[in-house]
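Troubleshooting: if your tokenizer reports a length mismatch, compare against these two reference records.
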Amino acid sequence: MATLAGQRAQFTWALNQYNLTEDPELRTRFARRMAEILNAAPKYGFTREQVSQGKSYPAEVEHHMSDPHLGSEEGISEQSAESFIKNAVDTSDVVRLGEGSGAVYAYGYACAPDRLKIGSTETDVVERIAAQVSTSTPDRPSLKLEIRTDHCRLLERAIHAVLEVRGRRVDGGGAEWFRTSRDEIIEIFEFINGAESRPT
């Protein structure tokens, strides 16, 4: 029987594969696979939104969802997809803080150790990062910080604002990339959160 976690992992895997290729035929294949997974969600007792977790996906997927011949695209098993997602992001050096239903996270790349992307999600952090990997990704992303909170969007905006005031935004890197460190983000979080104790 299909599980929600497994369906999410399969969807994220297909989205990741779509983002990693520039081959039009492969992109169509992975778009069709995403459409199949979303179409099957109600059959397993899930909504499409639960499976996609609010991730944006190519408009091409919506087009394929109405295809009467959909259903023949090869995918991978739920277990293989979960394993792929788990290994797509290096979590060996992550610091985890806080509690809550959402998270603010910071990840970066070994080739640019002074730059971190700071984002937020109401879903699984590793799946969120894996879905962002594309052909332009320099190497395997490394999750540095995960702060659990019930106010992830507010906390993310507050951290972004402090870093912007400090002149740390990376020009041309997108709205969420900053020249910063995990320690600086923790210091900002502690200031915002009333100086919670640091992890050991």
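Reference record two:
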Amino acid sequence: MDQTIILLITILIQTVGLFIVVEILSGWVLKWKEGAVTLVFAIATIPLFPVITYWLNLVIIFIFMIALLYKKQTIFISIIVPALTFILLIVSDYIFSNIFVPVFKIPISEIYQGLGSAASYATSMMIIACLFAYIIKKFVDKWDLYTYINQKKYGFITVAITLLTLLIYHLNIFFSAADGFVQEVVRLNTIIFLAYFAILIGMLYLVLQSAVQEIKMKNQQEQFAQLQEYTSTLEELHNEMRVFRHDYINILSSMAGYIDENDMEGLKKYFEKNIVPINQQIETNDYRISTLQNIHVTELKGLLAIKLIRAQELNIDVSVEVTEEINSINMPSVDLCKAAGILLDNAVEAALGSERPIIRIAIFKREEATTMLFANSVPKDMPPVYKIFEDGFSTKGTNRGIGLSSLRDTLQEYPNVTLDTKLDEDKQEFIQELEIM
């Protein structure tokens, strides 16, 4: 069989294997139709190999990157996953060549002379690459590394290190091909590649460790800020209680006047006009947020209580429905509170611009998910939903809104979290449903 055909068949096997590795590292984000289209585009580039030789890999990397971007993966993940895939291919190739040649007694120069040896070599090499990818993905999931990579600063550093590694590997292969792939060169390259791969892992470990420490520090600062806000609210409530106590004494004093004059009819009218409405207002406000006691995620309960009390102080009609016990929510508390805070802040802002300010909140369980529903009245000139998530958009004016845009970026880090947004024009109500699996 013609050697060019054998080589193209081998590249076909490698391309399919590379696609599987990309799927493993990305968490199988491409469904079968999307995956099939991506694979067809990648395979369609194979005839270019006689022209651009080993640089064909960069073309296939670009195709995989576009596919991941289409699936709304971040730019960092979309670059790193395909690049790491080809690094694993190269490392697997050199590792297996040092096993294949001694075991089967076939010189490297003759591996691609026959279809059987070439196909078995390529298949075995891709199996090793898939095993490496599976192990790496386990570590990525265990330590939630993609979350840190998606941080801009560390994302750029990780991308730079990965692409530099890939470039060095390809330059080495290019010059090795020019000199001929003799066994001594292959062994030397294997040592170099493994050493550099170990250095790459070490550098990425240090970068991600730094990211972990920085994010921990940031989380602590956010928790401290929330604690300060909570303390400030408690102080305000304490001051309100002092004022209420003062008013209560005045009320009793005014009632004493009616009693001294034995004016029961006047006392009755005074009581119905002044005391009963205050009592009803206190009971109503307390009842409307009392179901927060069913939330046993302390940080979330404190945040909601603070913001809802302030909403009531702004004369917003607030109602909360938490009919069942919420013991835990599958999302880090800092980002959970950040998401809930942004949604509630925007609900308050929009409600204040409406004719009759209303906010409704419901938290409930649905199968294995916890759903948080935020609904608020909106002004008649409410902008389209897609505009709300743009950077800098705010109903208060230009260059003020970063909340919902920031929320969108945060939620992209959690595949188990979805945000459904809709506008009910008939009820003049804006509804956001945060579902956490």
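Descriptive notes for reference record two:
- The longest helix spans residues 183-260.
- DSSP finds 14 helices and five strands in the chain.
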